[in-house]
Specification:
By secondary structure, the chain is of the alpha/beta class. The chain contains eleven helices and 14 strands. Helix 8 links the parallel strand 11 and strand 12. Bound molecules: adenosine-5'-diphosphate and magnesium ion.
């Protein structure tokens, strides 16, 4: 017996051109009408150019034909904005009091761990001034789309990624924008990108506590923040400032992560505190939130980042971070 559920299941196999996610993943299936030997499917045309629409239409009709040979199938499109279509359960912001502490790295690892758990995950690279996310994931293809929206680019393991870097002509092009423009770009990444159905969207916020991260926290419906620091941060001041900013914006601090916490030398079986003693507990107290992980300086990790293969990272620390993370974040 043909049912809406069966048709939806079939449509879940139709991948949208330009991204390896299906019509249902992207929440493009708006309506399915059944009756009198007819099936009428309404799809949102969001972010689909003419070619993509033609392809999706044919493909959708053909998968329905496979499960119901003697029905006529009609596929129509409706215009919708990405914002109307997107169903993002939780937005998690990754913050730091200053730049260069590994904010992008923690953003990437957080997304990777949740993706490995089977959640659907996206990364919104809102650090417009230093976008390093695409490089870590080895992606450089321009996002596709249409007048009505932009499609994210998919990582090797299926994480949706959007970054200003993907729109620039050259990789090393610097973005020197003033505050209002940055705010606009972040708003557009939220409103005009077809994220579809996501369990978690991880946001790489601009560093510091100035205008840009503040705008991002205003624009995005952030459920909670993870704050990154290194033992180099001599006072808790910098972390406290970030915590204060989050609290002022009514955002919960989910936890803190100490990056470049130590160097492990396997030959000596010894841990060396290169940047001084861990300040994890102290920062955790200052933030009123758990210390989720102490990430060591790992040359392998640096190499994987440089080569665009961060998704291959499989060090032990990830298990610790994953367990703490799953306890700290809202359930999907
Ligand atoms: N724990 C680490 N081990 C090795 N390299 C790291 C580590 N953390 C960061 N790096 C390297 O340092 C650089 C800066 O990190 P990044 O995450 O881009 O900092 P931020 O986003 O805070 O500016 C990256 O190129 C990354 O490869
Ligand atoms: Mg960065």
């Amino acid at each position: 017996m043909l049912s809406q559920e069966k048709i939806k299941e079939a449509l879940a196999d139709v991948l949208v051109p330009g991204i390896r996610r299906s019509l249902t993943d992207l929440n493009l299936v708006q309506d399915i009408e059944l009756g009198g030997g007819k099936v009428k499917i309404t799809l949102a045309s969001t972010a689909l150019d003419e070619d993509a629409q033609r392809w999706v239409k044919e493909k959708a009709a053909s998968v329905v034909k496979q499960i119901a040979d003697n029905t006529t199938t009609e596929v129509v499109f409706s215009e919708k904005r990405p914002l109307e279509i997107n169903r993002v359960k939780h937005v998690i912001a990754v913050m730091s009091g200053k730049g260069g502490v590994g904010k992008s790295l923690v953003t990437a690892l957080t997304a990777i761990l949740l993706n490995r758990q089977g959640f659907s995950v996206g990364i919104l690279d809102a650090d417009i001034t230093g976008p390093s996310i695409p490089k870590m994931f080895g992606i450089s293809s321009r996002p596709r789309g249409s007048e009505s929206g932009i499609l994210p680019v998919l990582s090797a393991n299926g994480i949706e990624i959007i970054s200003i870097n993907l729109f620039l002509p050259g990789d090393d092009e610097a973005v020197i924008w003033r505050g209002p423009l940055i705010g606009k770009a972040i708003t557009q990444f939220w409103e005009d990108v077809l994220w579809g159905n996501l369990d978690y969207l991880i946001v790489d916020l601009p560093p510091g506590t100035a205008d840009a991260p503040l705008t991002a926290l205003q624009v995005l419906p952030v459920s909670g923040a993870i704050i990154v620091f290194t033992p180099q941060d001599l006072t808790t001041m910098i972390v406290k400032k970030a915590v204060k900013m989050a609290q002022q914006m009514d955002k919960k601090v989910l936890g803190v992560v100490e990056n470049m916490s130590f160097l492990y030398v396997p030959e000596l079986k010894k841990q060396i505190d290169i940047f001084g003693k861990s300040r994890g507990e102290e920062m955790s107290r200052a933030a009123g939130a758990p210390l989720l992980a102490r990430i060591p300086i790992d040359p392998e990790l640096a190499t994987l980042c440089d080569e665009g293969h961060i998704e291959r990272y499989a060090a032990e620390i990830l298990t610790t971070y994953r367990d703490a993370l799953l306890k700290a974040i809202p359930p999907a």
